[in-house]
Design brief:
This protein is an all-alpha fold. It has one domain: MetI-like fold. Helices cover 72% and strands 1% of the residues. Strands 1-2 form a two-stranded antiparallel sheet. Helix 1 (2-37) packs across helix 14 and helix 3 runs antiparallel to helix 11. The longest helix is centred in the N-terminal third of the chain and has 36 residues, at 2-37.
């Protein structure tokens, strides 16, 4: 009997063990590979194997030779502003859906369509829509008198990164809207009705009841999208290739250039670990400030 009881207690762990082992292998091996090679000079254009131990030279080269600081600034701006905009636009759409207007079912079905597109497809779609000499969106904007740069939005250093953020927001705001709408449906109507009986306005009900109850969902969504935006590559590659100049260069595009264009594996490995450290610090600070109060 004790043996059977012990086996039953251990059975869930035994069933989970293969998945955990595979997951750890998929995470730890690449990170270990990158960590080891970040201290070696290894360029596939000169040798198929690492040539010599270089210490921290790869990290120094990443910071001094590559536009790492510019890419970091662009990446943080894209991730922070993108996640912020997508959350609030998504919240607005979710509140609109929650009013139970006519045609809400059809609107929900149409709403999810941008999210089903691959980022590369969305990038090519907007690349043609924003073509300076024939793009439909450019034609419409010029028709209403909106100032369009001569090089187009993607060819202008001041608007390229913003345009990437707008395209990403168009694609992923519906994801926020659908999830937040489901969260709103889970909130008891009795709580809101009681607040309105006590004289609370709809805005006060949203700000003091709905938003705090949605906080766990919202915090998780924002964290996931922030990490995805921090690793943005598809849209950057298709829309601007990091240009003009380095105005829309991101950390992921830097990694692509060093590892798959210049074949500098040592510098790409060092850059990978710098990105891992930066993301880990930002996410841990975010979790600390968001989850330090457990009353909700």
């Amino acid at each position: 009997m004790p043996n059977r009881y012990t086996f039953q207690r251990r059975l869930p762990y035994l069933l989970l063990a293969p998945s955990v082992i595979v997951l750890l292998a998929l995470i730890l091996y690449p990170l270990g590979f990158a960590l080891r090679n970040s201290f070696w000079f290894w360029n596939l254009q000169t040798s198929p194997m690492p040539l010599y131990h270089s210490g921290f030279d790869n990290f120094r080269m990443v910071l001094q030779v590559t536009p790492f600081s510019v890419a970091l600034k662009n990446t943080v701006l894209l991730a922070v502003l993108g996640a912020f905009a997508q959350f609030w636009f998504g919240m607005g759409i979710a509140l609109l859906l929650h009013t139970h207007l006519r045609g809400t079912g059809l609107f929900r079905a149409l709403l999810i369509m941008p999210t089903t597109l691959a980022p590369v497809v969305a990038g090519f779609l907007f690349r043609y829509l924003l073509e300076p000499k024939g793009g439909v969106l450019i034609w419409l904007l010029e028709g209403i008198g909106f100032p369009v740069p001569p090089q187009g939005f993607l060819g202008n250093a001041g608007t390229a990164l913003i345009t990437i953020g707008v395209v990403d927001t168009w694609q992923w705001t519906p994801f926020f809207a659908i999830v937040l709408y489901a969260g709103l449906l889970s909130i008891s109507e009795e709580i809101k009705e009681a607040a309105m009986v006590d004289g609370a306005s709809p805005w006060r009900v949203f700000w003091s009841i709905s938003l705090p109850l949605l906080r766990p969902i919202a915090a998780f969504l924002v964290m996931i999208r922030f990490m995805q935006l921090f690793n943005s590559f598809d849209l950057v590659y298709v829309l601007t290739s990091g240009g003009p100049g380095t105005s829309s260069r991101t950390l992921s595009f830097n990694l692509y250039l060093e590892g798959l264009v210049n074949y500098n594996i040592g510098m790409a490995a060092a850059m990978t670990w710098l990105v891992v450290i930066i993301v880990s610090v930002i996410i841990n600070l975010y979790l600390f400030f968001v989850y330090r109060k457990r009353e909700w």
